[in-house]
Amino acid sequence: MTSHKIHVKFPGRIVFIGFGSIGQGVLPLILRHIGTDASRITVVAPDERGSHVVQHFGVNFIKQAIKQDNLRSVLTPLVGEGDFVINVSVDVSSIDLIRFCRERGALYLDTCIEPWPGGYTDPSLPAARRTNYALRETALSLREGAADAPTAVLTHGANPGLVSHFVKQALLDIAADTGVAAGDPRTREEWAALAHTLGIKVIHIAERDTQVSPVRKRPGEFVNTWSVDGFVSEGCQPAELGWGSHERHFPADGNRYDFGRGSSIFLSQPGAATRVRTWTPRAGHFHGFLITHGEAISISDYLSVLDGDRVAYRPTVHYAYHPCDDAVLSVHEFAGRNFVMQDEQRILMDEINPGGIDELGVLLAGHGRNAYWYGSQLSIDEARALCPFNNATSLQVTVAVLAGVVWAMENPRRGVVEPDEMDFRRALEVCMPYLGPVVGAYTDWNPLQDRERLFPEELDREDPWQFLNIRVR
Ligand code: NAD
Fold first, then answer.
1. Ligand 1 pocket, 313 CB below 6 A?
2. For residue 388, is the peptide bond before it cis, meaning its omega torsion is within 30 degrees of 0?
3. In terms of C-beta density within 10 A (0-12 exposed, 13-18 middle, 19 or more buried), how is residue 444 classed?
4. 224: CA distance to ligand 1 center in Å?
5. Are residues 116 and 249 in the same domain?
6. 163 Cβ contact list (under 8 Å, min separation 6)
7. Residue 50 CA: which ligand 1 atom is closest?
8. Pairing mode of beta strands 344-347, 221-224
9. Which positions ≥6 away from 129 have C-beta within 8 Å?
10. Using a 6 Å cutoff on CB, does residue 125 contact ligand 1?
11. Is 259:141 a contact under the CB 8 Å cutoff?
12. How many CB atoms lie within 10 A of CB 285?
């Protein structure tokens, strides 16, 4: 007998594409909270890195890399009407998988929009085409004429994913604390109007990971608390950010797009070489990497107030990521190698020391109470107690995958959907038991504080929340 709540019963088959740190951590949650059975679950991955987890739960395993030329032949026997594909791989095109699932009548979820190998880094592609913006535009174009296609949830991990729901909760909290009548926003326009009314200028996805292993990073090794391949790929993409309507200093290395919605910009340098100032409650203020992420683009687009073609309001939105300390050293070494990958890689899991946390949330700034952070402060110890085969970082992601899967099963004909368009209350309800302390905290910190202590800087003293002030140069 299980004491875990079954959120939804699912009679179809479930196929995992890829089974690394996220896939392995998702499986126990699916078996706990979805009415299914191990015999109906199949893992497809090119290596046996997760074989201990496969054996532990008795699910089916097919050792196979999915490539452009075998996607159909490998997956057709496994995926049909009413089944579910959970794509937690690297190097398998989300777009092609969504097309395939739609043809087969199957549901789909991923945690980032992956291209085929090279899509993030192929120097023969223009930089604008190596962005998450371009991948999102292609994914959203699949909506045309297919509003009631089988649900395909885009980018529903922690970030992108869960943080879109954090933003909505934070908007309601700030409204309540500043005496603004928020009502009960339901539509994109209503949420955007609320953010506008509150005067939110900036949204950081502010994350500080303090997990550490007793075996420290060695020279020539890339260490992280989740996918090394995933982190390195996104770190090599151009830095991308939703570009707010309050910004008055366009970056010298900034670029706008000549296609798509135009809500974000990219810088002519990789995210792994771009740093920004931010704040979380436990860490205080720190420098994080502005790594490109889907949520920077979708949230800024979602919260835009348009007046015809004119953008009346839009917040600046970007990631500000301080990964675990050994990952920072790994990025530093990687950049010094001119972005050529180290020979060894290690994802920290069982060996992590007690005591570290992944403090992951959203910092909404520029409103009547300056800045407000809302998010999860999950520790490694609590993550271990809550669910096997997870660390603090992965559990924030894997429970968000569970929430996305539950939502898709409950809403099976919604076509291509982004996290911002889902029911945030339902998603938070599913996630909360696994997030450790979830806190909201106001701060008087802003990026102008304590500046020019050593040298003069180019600053905009009239508005702290200009990207000019936030970027580390
Ligand atoms: P990982 O590197 O630990 O595992 C990747 C898996 O993909 C491995 O099992 C690998 O064998 C498999 N794979 C590689 N090539 C494949 C192919 N051709 N066919 C099938 N499988 C293949 O990565 P992870 O930490 O589990 O992350 C998985 C994905 O989730 C990545 O795309 C990552 O960017 C994304 N992610 C998203 C979030 C979020 O919050 N949204 C967080 C963490 C990871």
1. no
2. no
3. exposed
4. 13
5. no
6. 205, 295, 299, 360, 361, 362, 375, 419
7. 9
8. parallel
9. none
10. no
11. no
12. 15
Q: How far is the CA of 229 from the centre of ligand 1 (A)?
A: 8
- Mark which of 118, 153, 188 sits at the end of a domain: 153
Q: Any residues with CB less than 8 A from the CB of 141 and at least 6 apart, and which?
A: none
- Does residue 98 belong to any structural domain of this protein? yes
Enter the DSSP assignment of 152.
Answer: E
Degrees (nearest 5) of the Cα angle 51, 236, 334?
A: 80
- Cβ(45) to ligand 1 under 6 A? yes
C-alpha of residue 230 to centroid of ligand 1, in Å = 6
401 domain-assigned? no
Residue 152 CA, chain-centre distance (Å), reads: 16
Alpha-carbon gap, residue 289 to 207, rounded angstroms: 10
Residue numbers of the domain that contains 16:
8-153
Is residue 207 located within the same domain as residue 344? yes
Does the C-beta of 96 come closer than 6 Å to ligand 1? no
Specify the DSSP element, H or E, that contains 28. Answer: helix 21-33
Helix or strand run (H / E) with residue 184:
none
Q: Where are the beta strands (DSSP E) in 57-184?
A: 60-63, 84-87, 107-110, 152-153
Q: Is 108 helix (H, G, I), strand (E, B) or coil?
A: strand
C-alpha 146: how far from its chain's center? 25
- The CA angle 120-129-313, to the nearest 5 degrees, is 110
Tell me, what CATH number does 357's domain have? 3.30.360.30
> Per-residue pLDDT tens for 376-402?
999 999 999 999 999 999 999 999 999
Q: Which residue has the tokens 């920077």?
A: 296
- Strand locations in 70-139 (E): 84-87, 107-110
Same domain? 301 vs 229 = yes
C-alpha to C-alpha distance for 413 and 435, rounded to whole angstroms? 29
Q: What digits encode the pLDDT tens for the residues 395-415?
A: 999 999 999 999 999 999 999
Mutate to test the pocket of ligand 1, among 19, 67, 71, 88 (most ligand atoms within 8 A of CB): 88
Q: Which residues pair with 8 in a beta bridge?
A: 34
Rounded to the nearest whole angstrom, what is the distance from the C-alpha of residue 99 to the centroid of ligand 1? 20
Chain Cα centroid distance, residue 330: 21
209 close to 225: Cβ distance less than 8 angstroms: yes
Check residue 2 and give its pLDDT.
Answer: 55
Measured CA to CA, the distance from residue 323 to residue 331 in angstroms comes to: 10
Q: Give 206's DSSP letter.
A: E
**Which atom in ligand 1 lies closest to the alpha carbon of residue 293?**
41
| Whole-prediction pTM | 0.98
Total number of domains in the chain:
2
Confidence of residue 469 (pLDDT cuts 50, 70, 90): very high
